[in-house]
Automatic annotation (TrEMBL):
This is Diphosphomevalonate decarboxylase. InterPro entries: GHMP_kinase_C_sf, Mev_decarb, Mev_diP_decarb, MVD-like_N, Mvd1_C, Ribosomal_Su5_D2-typ_SF, Ribsml_uS5_D2-typ_fold_subgr. Pfam families: MDD_C (PF18376), MVD-like_N (PF22700). The keyword Lipid metabolism applies. It comes from Lymnaea stagnalis (Great pond snail). Residues 14-182 form the Diphosphomevalonate decarboxylase-like N-terminal domain.
């Protein structure tokens, strides 16, 4: 490739989001339109983020993509969809020549895929955001994130990773889905004390994927019919709790909604089990801690897997973390850090607290803990060192 400006590249990062009011079920499989609205917290990107560089060049002979160091096919409906949708929304006509050029995409996560965390939402949001920056797309882009997933291989929840802070995905009513997109309920600075502990469970057994799981739920669960009737009220109550920074209400609703998601999974025929014995032990521990405090101080939520995501306020992290580490100590010291992310002042576990909790210690059940906080939406990185392309347009692998 010749050196002089034949290639143009944009690098962006996008965050992971963890829902406190869950999306589970589609009313339109093709357009990825949900049966209910959902609400999530966008997490800090120092700990959890996808990074994507996209480039166009007249020298590229075909569209290509590399994910976590390995080349992947771009000829999947979802990648083709996102390319088509972003190009359709192109607002800067100066880019017309580039539009006809092939695109190269390089993407990676800063956390292990094996952790079983919702990496796809961050990845798709990052791809959509990077392309929108490359082509100069303006306006509402969260619906592209939703549309690009119409092949059912992607992630509808990706549209919530387009914003920072507290984000709602309003289900909308229109058949064409044009009123179904993400909106920011509050920015990350609104509740700066909010913290998250992600407990990565050791046994990452594979169960039904969320796309297939939620479809079977819609087809078979009577409880799901009840769930959709209460979701508007739940969304309103959660939005109000966030606006008022009312942690006990926020926490209780978060736990109730996670429990109901897993109840509709159990009511699905055949039933779906995402939580494990360890997940249930974490639930018991959280309720025992809240009993000691005589107030909801910590809340759990579980997605389509056994990992727990705990929400709590900064002042309560040392005490809660000491109890989590007491009941779920690392199996042996392999020199790896057990708690990663934001630093926490270490406090010895309170023996009075321990004596009030009737739970067996379970060494090695939790692989590691990620400590993070509420974070911003996607970012554009301008430092060329951050690019996942070399100066002459090749992927850095
Ligand atoms: C349990 O977004 O992965 O995490 O749209 O079929 O790709 P598809 O599903 P996906 O579902 C996420 C479900 C969830 C809850 C949530 O994040 O709201």
């Amino acid at each position: 490739m010749s050196a002089e400006n034949t290639f143009r590249c944009v690098t962006c990062t996008a965050p992971v989001n963890i829902a406190v009011i869950k999306y589970w079920g589609k009313r339109d499989e093709k357009l990825i339109l949900p049966t209910n609205s959902s609400l999530s917290v966008t997490l800090g990107q120092d700990e959890l983020r996808a990074k994507t560089s996209v480039a166009v060049s007249k020298d590229y002979t075909q569209d290509r993509m590399w994910l976590n160091g390995k080349e992947q096919s771009v000829n999947t409906p979802r990648i083709q969809n996102v390319l088509k949708e972003t190009r359709k929304r192109l607002s800067d006509s100066q880019n017309e020549t580039e539009l006809l050029q092939n695109v190269h995409i390089v993407s990676e996560n800063n956390f292990p895929t094996a952790a079983g965390l919702a990496s796809s939402a961050a990845g798709y949001a990052c791809l959509v955001y990077s392309l929108s920056q490359l082509y100069g797309v303006k306006g509402e882009i969260s619906d592209i994130a939703r549309l690009l997933l119409s092949c059912r291989q992607g992630s509808g929840s990706a549209c919530r990773s387009i914003y920072g802070g507290f984000v709602a995905w309003n289900m909308g009513e229109l058949e064409d889905g044009s009123d179904s997109y993400a909106v920011q309920v509050a920015p990350e600075a609104h509740w700066p004390e909010m913290r998250t502990l992600i407990l990565v469970v050791n046994d990452q057994k594979k169960d039904v994927g969320s796309t297939e799981g939620m479809q079977t739920t819609i087809e078979t669960s009577d409880l799901m019919k009840h769930r959709v009737t209460i979701m508007d009220r739940r969304m309103e109550a959660m939005t109000e709790a966030i606006k008022k920074r009312d942690f006990p209400t926020f926490g209780k609703l978060t736990m109730q909604d996670s429990n109901q998601l897993h109840a509709v999974c159990l009511d699905t025929y055949p039933p779906i089990f995402y939580m494990t014995d360890v997940s249930r032990q974490v639930i018991r521990l959280v309720h025992a801690i809240n009993d000691i405090y005589e107030e909801v101080k910590v809340a759990y939520t579980f997605d389509a897997g056994p990992n727990a995501c705990l929400y709590l306020l900064e002042e309560d992290v040392p005490r809660v973390l000491s109890l989590v580490q007491h009941f779920f100590p690392p199996s042996q010291d392999k020199g790896e850090k057990f708690v990663t992310g934001l630093s926490v002042p270490e406090v010895p576990v309170c023996s009075k607290d321990v004596s009030k909790i009737s739970l067996q210690q379970n060494p090695g059940a939790i692989k590691y803990i990620i400590h993070t906080k509420v974070g911003p939406g996607p970012q554009v990185l301008t430092d060329p060192d951050e690019s996942l392309f070399t100066a002459d347009g090749k992927p850095k692998l």
